[in-house]
# Entry
Amino acid sequence: QVLLQQWGGGLLKPSETLSLTCSVSDDSISNSNYWWGWIRQPPGKGLEWIGEINHSGSTNYNPSLKSRVTISVDTSKNQFSLNLSSVTAADTAVYYCARVVVPTGEAYYFDYWGQGTLVTVSS
Amino acid sequence: DIVMTQSPDSLAVSLGERATVNCKSSQSVFYSSNNKNYLAWYQQKPGQPPKLLIYWASTRESGVPDRFSGSGSGTDFTLTISSLQAEDVAVYYCQQYYRTPKTFGQGTKVEIK
# Structure
């Protein structure tokens, strides 16, 4: 059973940088059958895809966030991370990490999810 | 972006009865070269992350009860719970992975009548 454990975030002030890390257990982040992604969910609202990365560092980002998002991978620690700069109240959400299934070379749907981390942006 | 619109926003169904959730995409998510619809369904219970139920519009994820089924093609899709159980109370989301950015429907809340 693949386990994704995430940490970071908490309470941030506007203009600060959000930083989250997701650690993967019982799977190698270098497994070429998967990418590794981030999704967020504002309180009481729906899901928004942020972006994803593979083991070699190739990334896809949501264009709506691309100017502020950086996703990185550390294969030695079997972890990947999310940085979101210049946060505002609109970035308040539960952030999830997830494994992305790659059946044909492109990253598609999410089969395992982290537990979620609430990030609140408030002055 | 491909906009995913679910209907209804919420529904209440009696235990043992059928529940049907609809999802419509703003453009087709069917890829003719491999005859696949690039659509997934998730279940989210309160305080939990989403759980994958269905991918390729109709393929059930391992371990998902067979009372859950997905159907549809092109722009119109349906998630059916054939006999609603108490543990199925949740919000259900569709997601397209045909084109970046991946996008989700707004969610449909399923409750017991």
